[in-house]
């Protein structure tokens, strides 16, 4: 029996440092309403949706970073988003910076159509660096401003499906999606903020986008699941984030993709049964996985230098 979920990926164009949360939420609600008109049950917003990508900035006093973090969800500004989503009977994935007591995380939540928060994820694969790099064109200080996520790669029953969450750099790691698939995930949703410039290596922009897509296309096929990925993109205070918001089928095919780096919405009617033939043939885990041969994956972080 076929099961369908109509999803929307909501790309958000650049958010400037001085832009308020209220103005960002205004933009999000416009996309939310368009998704509802299109009959979507779920809309996926980007990583750190509510502010500029602040890890590009060095703050001498980490207390100055607190302005970018949410201490409750929903909060004073975000309650309006929750209310409008409930009115429209549409759920959402939202990425934001979370402060829990004295701990800081790069977080996402999954909210059902009735406004119930059904899942929370905290980013595990933090990229970048923690020290100041004064000669770099910008900073990438996720390792300074966030702790490594402590909730694991969860999968939640929601929208009559089994849905997993991750964030940005997690999408490049095959273990992310395999752990979800071993919990029966049928769809993975994620947001990202990816600079067009790699400050650690002279990497051509076309390779940045190629690697973005190939990581998720391979993961979708190898695990027989849908992937919905939303970008924050365009110029923020002169620094550029690439777009590439997309919806990927379990076959690895890109079925919808944005054409700009502005606020843009794409939608697709996802057949959740599409991945079943993959899970029952080439990637039939019960029949073909050989976990005794995979021990190095969890026993060793990197190659042994003595080999």
Structure description:
The chain has helices at 21-37, 79-88, 142-145, 174-181, 205-223, 276-279, 285-288, 296-299, and strands at 4-11, 42-44, 91-100, 103-111, 117-122, 155-158, 161-167, 187-192, 194-195, 226-231, 234-236, 239-242, 246-248, 254-257, 264-271. It has one domain (4-274): Carbon-nitrogen hydrolase (Nitrilase/N-carbamoyl-D-aminoacid amidohydrolase), CATH 3.60.110.10. Helices cover 23% and strands 27% of the residues. The longest helix is centred in the last third of the chain and has 19 residues, at 205-223. The strands form three sheets. It has a six-stranded mixed sheet, covered by helices on one side. It is built from eight helices and 15 strands.
Give the structural class: alpha/beta
Number of strands: 15
Treating each run of at least 4 consecutive H or I residues as one helix, how many helices? 8
Strand order of the largest sheet: 5-4-3-2-1-15
Order of helices and strands: EHEHEEEHEEHEEHEEEEEEHHH
How far apart the termini lie comes to 51 Å
Reported for the largest beta sheet, the result is:
6 strands, mixed
Q: Would you identify the CATH H-level superfamily?
A: Carbon-nitrogen hydrolase
Unreliable sequence segments: none
Q: What fold name goes in the CATH topology slot? A: Nitrilase/N-carbamoyl-D-aminoacid amidohydrolase
Secondary structure elements and pairings:
Elements: E1 4-11, H1 21-37, E2 42-44, H2 79-88, E3 91-100, E4 103-111, E5 117-122, H3 142-145, E6 155-158, E7 161-167, H4 174-181, E8 187-192, E9 194-195, H5 205-223, E10 226-231, E11 234-236, E12 239-242, E13 246-248, E14 254-257, E15 264-271, H6 276-279, H7 285-288, H8 296-299
Parallel strand pairs: 1-2, 2-3, 7-8, 8-10
Antiparallel strand pairs: 1-15, 3-4, 4-5, 6-7, 9-12, 10-13, 11-12, 13-14
